[in-house]
């Protein structure tokens, strides 16, 4: 009843092929963007901006990049954190060594460098797939971190590989406050999310999904597997590279190679599993879930332990968090493999006929 498209007539091809063809979706997206750009910067505290909203947007962008590769193209990858590291360190070096380089150009070039690395480690996808491909991409995780540690030129001769991000300035305006950093990250993520939404609706996205469903049949109907798979690795790594640059410049400010560990790659993989594989919205839902659940557990578990007189320590709380993450992943893989995005889709289908039974 609330989500019915009855009466919404399409009178042109442009109207029929809109990115959000249903009016309720357009209203919802515009409302979310209006709140994100116009309300949250004024009401959110500095803690919420720096510790929750900015990392949520950064990890959403990284999960979106991985979702393009794994969810839409069907290519497993465990090197997401490595591609983020390439983007962060490449952007740092572009800013350091090229005087007058615009910050957005540095981020874009950092994403390009990550895309090139992604193509190099995506070459095994032409011959192997599944878990074997995941192990091959795992090599990127260790190789990239080894390069960043053993070649001090990449970190401006830092003995430990630590880099400190330069100040962000756009058209003479310094992005140095939590509100400005949040708005900057939000703008970048919004644009790239809309590009990804359009990309998966194009012939490129349809080719990715054809390869994901059955690569042999896709090749029979004329889809070039090599170009399509490597393009998926390139686009995914580009998104992860830009996310890594935002991670270094707008969230942490100072990063080291060990900060882009395998644990971060698994964390982003958990985001798309819980949020929904093959869904743009699922990347954001999964990132929000993974970031907010530890905060919820940190605030509720000590109170429960006090009430039940249980000797909970900080280490116990962290172990329970890992147990909850593992249990949720198993739950979603068994009960709802398409994650939170599928639950939202089911809710919209129910709203189409509510309160009537048919």
TrEMBL record:
- Per its UniProt record, what InterPro entries does this chain match? ABC_transp_permease (IPR001851), LivM-like (IPR043428)
Topological type in the membrane = Multi-pass membrane protein
Protein name (record): ABC transporter permease
PANTHER family, per this entry? ABC TRANSPORTER PERMEASE PROTEIN, HIGH-AFFINITY BRANCHED-CHAIN AMINO ACID TRANSPORT SYSTEM PERMEASE
A single GO cellular-component term from the record reads: plasma membrane
UniProt xrefs under Pfam families:
BPD_transp_2 (PF02653)
Q: Which species is listed as the source?
A: Pandoraea horticolens
Provide the alphabetized UniProt keywords.
Cell membrane, Membrane, Transmembrane, Transmembrane helix
